[in-house]
Each structure stands twice: as C-alpha cells, then as structure tokens.
Amino acid sequence: MVTPDNKLHASWESYYEDGGKKCVATYDKGVKTGIWYYYYKDKIKRVTYSENKIIEIEELEPNM
Fold this sequence. Notes:
Strand content: over 45%
Structural class: mainly beta
Distance between the termini: 28 Å
Largest sheet: 6 strands, antiparallel
Order of helices and strands: EEEEEE
Number of helices: 0
Radius of gyration: 13 Å
Low-confidence stretches: none
C-alpha cells in the first residue's frame, strides 16, 4: 500500500525472477519498521528495524 504522499505503508514482499521469495518487509508511512526477512539460497537473515535503523541482524537456517 502507498500513502497519499507516495510513501510505502504496511507489509511488502519481493521475489526473485524464478518466483522464490526475496524479502518480506514492513513500512510505516515510508519508514522501515519491525522484523524483515531476507531470503537467500542457503540462509535467511532476520533484520529488526526501528525508525529506519537496524537494531539487530540474525542468520537463520532456511528450514526455519
């Protein structure tokens, strides 16, 4: 979803060209917030954001 002033808002997902999930994210009126997941072939990164700043980064196994 996009706000009237063209800022991303709510949940967002992106995908690789082969259809595999690339990223699951959340924006609050254009600001990165909450837990984002970045998917790679051999790992998943869980990144916690608060007001566009990275608070924590964790690497997870793909089967989690």
